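Task: encode each sequence below as structure tokens.

Item 1
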Amino acid sequence: MKIHEYQGKELLRGLGVPVPLGGVAFTPGEVKLVAADLIQRTGNPVVVVKSQIHAGGRGKGRFVEQPDVGGVKVVKSAEDAAQIAEKMLGNTLVTIQTGPEGKKVQRVLVEQGMNIARELYLAITLDRATGRNTVMASTEGGMDIEEVAAHTPEKILKESIDPAVGLQAFQARKLAYALGLVDPVAPRFVKFLLALAAAYDRLDCALLEVNPLVVTGDDQVLALDAKVSFDDNATFRHKELEELRDPNEEDPSELEAKSWDLSYVKLDGNIGCMVNGAGLAMATMDIIQYVGAKPANFLDVGGGATAERVTAAFKIITRDPNVRGILVNIFGGIMKCDTIATGVIAAVKEVGLKVPLVVRLEGTNVELGKKMLDESGLAITTASSLRDAATKIVELVKP
């Protein structure tokens, strides 16, 4: 689960992580009011207007309708802030992470201008190689960390967090000195990082990235940006975070799948997949690529799916205009093959079948499930194995 920058900063502020003063606005009029208040409070006429979408690279991005305007703009008055917001709000911003279709900006963050002396990179995420949360830091703040990793990996510093004791002060000091920080900035960085690590743990984050982390002219350390995402498996402990979800930033099909307790991720291929079990789903996608096509989605209906959930899953797949064929691959254990057959037949009758459909069933009640499909009178192709199923669906979708 992802949230907007302004929401992440509010959470961090409440947990003791220093962030700039600012406020969210949805109209140019609101932008003017927020900017005027910031100017009055800080005595600084400079404010920053930042587009709020779930994608990075906003500063380098461009609006389709206003190609001369980037997603982040520094202005010197409340009136200028309102004028630039008028060009941002309601318009589509294209960045390196949105793809060419871009995302519509429906809100902006208005923040105080900062006297930036230095920019750094700081993030905490799970390192799957070690099985531990890991702090990453770099002197290359404001840069795409992927570029830094590819061309100057030695500039990325790491500290692994022991889950039994958490991030220790000596580790934070080690990173501070490695980044070239000295008093009075170094102890402030240590305090910042320890608070950030505590926030990461408290919120069950999947990623907490600050890029850039800035050192100001008066030696303060603040999060100038904040990318925060949460571990979906832990959201049951944080019901309050659900209120921060922005459905306009999420794929409608993924939202519908979530309502049915289905694990669905849209991909860029043309073979729709419906599978039970994440491991089997991954294997199914792999073999589709092996035989010469690409999966259009990851969709795990789970081990205890009902016929209704199978029907819902089928509808989600067929709604994707890129899908030219569908492969259903089920190993019946808890979920019996006849249940899958019932759901597939009901879905085909309700939605209609405009693309080839191959079904491979194995496990509990497999013969009954196959018989139901064969006697349904529908254009459903059955397969005897996963390789057979993948080969058949790829052949059927060829021009």
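Item 2
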Amino acid sequence: MTLDSFNALTHADAKHQLLGCCHCQQWATALANMRPFESLEQLLQLADQLWLQANEAQILEAFSGHARIGDIELLRSKYAGRATGEQGQVLAASDDVLNELQRLNDLYFEKNQFIFIVCASGKPAHVMLELLQQRIHNCRDTELQNGAVQQGYITRLRLQQLFISTNAQARVQP
């Protein structure tokens, strides 16, 4: 999609596209209302600024749009879609790594009442497992903030992917 075609979408269609990048109604509505954008960089900067203003309910809403890291059943299903693209390297992991990812993800969810969020793109399963091991002992408030930062990286990456064109794209540094 080009930026011009995005700017020309109806509000509902623009919001729908944005929700595919970050599953937060208020964020998507506010960003759709800011159109037209003059450049992808302007859109990315405004998206980042809006995300930094998100409250706990909005952050948790965004988290609810993600599959758990290492959810092999979803990744192998024909319905995997974006999860396979973002977590595809998990499929190559050993059973030991996958089982530990599952176990720690379950513990993480029990402790925090939200899933472990990490920008998985380009990360093999053992790296995501190491990150989960490092973060699992943090308090809920710390993890809410860690997850929000990771959600920001994910959103930026997805926005860039939405507007793939011949123009040079700014890159996210998770």
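Check on item 2: Residues 157 and 172 are 6 Å apart (CA to CA). The two ends are 24 Å apart (CA to CA).
End of task.
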